Each structure stands twice: as C-alpha cells, then as structure tokens.
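Write out the 3D structure for:
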Amino acid sequence: MLQTAHEAVARIMKLARRLDGVISGEHGIGITKLEFLSDDELRPFAEYKQRVDPEGRFNKGKLLREPGAGAQSLHADLTNAYTPSFGLMGHESIIMQQSDIGAIADSVKDCLRCGKCKPVCATHVPRANLLYSPRNKILATSLLVEAFLYEEQTRRGVSIKHWEEFEDVADHCTVCHKCLTPCPVKIDFGDVSMNMRNLLRKMGQKSFRPGNAAAMFFLNATNPQTIKTVRAGMVGIGFKAQRMANDLLRGLAKKQTAAPPASLGPAPVKEQVIHFINKKMPGNLPKKTARALLDIEDADYVPIIRNPKATTSETEAVFYFPGCGSER
C-alpha cells in the first residue's frame, strides 16, 4: 500500500513538471516534497539560510541538499525522517494483506455515506435507534477495523469488547440483500455481514445462540429421517406454539411493535420472548417436505421430473436441485 502511494506521488510530480506546473503545497514544501525539487529551486533558500544562520542552529540540516558546517550528513527528505505514523502504516498494510480484515475493509471503502440504503433495510428501525442502517453499520465497521489494526500494531491483542461490537454489527443484518439495489457504488452489506460472521467464526469469537444452532442444524441436515424428525419438532410443534402465543398475547405484542425498545446489545429475556411472539409464523404448511412429496429422497440419484408418456428423449426435462431450506 505504501509502495503504491510513493509510486503514485512520483508519477504525479513528473506529470506536474511535464505540464509546466510547480511543486508546492497548501502548507509549503516540507520534507515530503523536497526530493522532487531541483537544485536551482532550492538554491535561494540555501543561500538565505547560510547568510542568516551560518552555524546552522535553526533546524540544522533541514531542507538542505548539502548539510552546512557542523550538520550531520543525512538526507533532509523522508529517507531518515522519524515518522511513527508511516511506520505503523507499514505494519497495517501487512496485517491487511495477511488477514480477512483487509477484504472486509476493502468491500466497504467506497461507501458515499448517502443513506439511500436506509429505507429498504430491515434492521433500520428509527423508532428504536438509528445505529443499524447499512450506512451506519459501514461507519461502525470502519471504526472497528481501525481499532483492530491499532491493537495489532501495538501488540496489545485485540480487545474482547471490540469482537463483541463487531458481532453486534454483523448480527444486525437479515442478509436480504435489498441494500444492493439503491446503493450507487453497489455495496452489498449482506455479503459483508456474512464475511464478518465467517471471520468471527474463524477467530473463535462467535457467540453460541441456541436458536441459531438449531436453525443451522435443520438447514444442514441431509438425512431424510433427521429432517422429518427435526421438522416435526420445529415446524409441527414450534410454529403452532408460536402462533397460539401470538393469538393469546396479541395486545402485549402490539405495544412493543408500536414503540420498540432500543436494540442495542442483548435484550432482556422478557423483551426477547415478546419479540418472538409479535410476528406470527406462517400456517397451513405442507405436511411433507418437497422431496418427500416428489419421492426423491434417495441421495444416490439425481431427480429428473417429466411425464414419460408425453415426452421423448429430445424433450426438455427439469432437474430438481432444492435450494437452502426450500425442501425443509
């Protein structure tokens, strides 16, 4: 990253010369641009400095190609400058290249902060808070990346608190990808959230949540009997119980929907229960999975659905590849 920056500056300086421009800056020349100045441009300053400060007491050796009497023979540009910030940037570039943090930072760096993603985001609920729109989650992610880099550079170890905040941002996303369409720079925060969760899992910082674990177990199950058993418990019993609770406690649930509490950090158990029942689960679901209805549960065969009486070998057929959850 730093090498690319140095090369870009050198190209810009050459281009400025070629277009008859001058090497200058809003705060003067300084040591950053000294190497691009010619001897003729530096000579008036050197002569003046020699005349008013012949012993080199003021900023000894600064901005001079030829060190004066008593000055150390050191380059006056960035070659020997003590620049801890540049040194940290060197470490930062290595960390960014060697970790998944770099990919996450790169995926959100083009954000314009325009907020066009807010109206379509499922986790942006202004009545509760203004923290979890994609725009603000990108701001939070950028700040957390800076915190990670600082702690890695200073060898302090990444704070557990920062991992918790990172997980809080990643979990406030339904991965619906609706934010992609209005985004002028096409940032899909659903994909960013998945990358953040994968990083948390890889670093062993992902919190265990029974609901998440049960849902992932159900979606990852491949054995037909396991799917039937889990489906009977989660869909056959769980959905019915949730719908019944919604009917019984509808008044209490509506109160939370009208004035939702701030969704910052883990909610109390009471609020979690109310939130769980205030959105009614779907009813009238099929008694069997799509695979069971089509009798294609045998994993040793690729299902080809067609009517053998009305088709020939040249007729188009449908290959059935169920998506995530669609056959559950």
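The longest helix spans residues 224-248.
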